[in-house]
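Q: Could you write out the predicted structure for this multi-component system? I'm mainly interested in how the pieces pack against one another.
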Amino acid sequence: MIETHYSCPCMEQCPLNRAMQLIGGKWKMQIICSLNNGGSIRYNHLKQRLDGISNTVLAKALKELEECGLVTRHEFMEVPARVEYRTTKACDDLIPILDSLSDWCEKYEMKE
Amino acid sequence: MIETHYSCPCMEQCPLNRAMQLIGGKWKMQIICSLNNGGSIRYNHLKQRLDGISNTVLAKALKELEECGLVTRHEFMEVPARVEYRTTKACDDLIPILDSLSDWCEKYEMKE
DNA sequence: CAGTATCCCGGCAGATACTG
DNA sequence: CAGTATCTGCCGGGATACTG
């Protein structure tokens, strides 16, 4: 191996790192998972599924996921308020990749 | 959709969450990337590639990656000390998945 | 050279109360 | 119902100095 002044492409903002920031964090994966399994879901329904999540955290996560185009927010003009969330095409395309990641983890029986 | 008391499998310690914990964190991805590109690499060489990483963080990350079977540590009994790191088979199998994750991110031009 | 030992800080995550 | 406002604690990440 030649001793060039090699630098990993990940040192810049590479897509891989961006991806990790999108789906990283304590709850993102569960949120994506729940939305994927359930079609359109209302805020409180989602919160019930994600046992133990707080409003601050869930609302912030949903906002981030919406901003980066992974989920859509649909607000119905009703009283009391009604808002439904669902996955986007981008998110649906992500699922198979997450599946293979999951399979990989099981195959090698990864422990933390 | 039937209103069962559905619970996302991710609520337990699912493989997907485990995977994310293994490769999550600020530097894990760059470390894996650097090791993957470089065969066996010595500690300080790796540190140079990961511009800005501190000893505490690098050492801790490497220990974790070793414990979960993603990298191997080979210590040569020399003075001064010499230690080389490289990826395991498990890690090599992970790379294509990370590639597809990267591609996915580029395809949808994900911003943070 | 390849790490530990210490100390430190900012930001994620959470609890709780409140509101359109 | 679907969130915000506010406060708090903890820990991942970091700087620096030291050692087998």
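A: Regarding packing and overall arrangement: The two ends of chain B are 32 Å apart (CA to CA).
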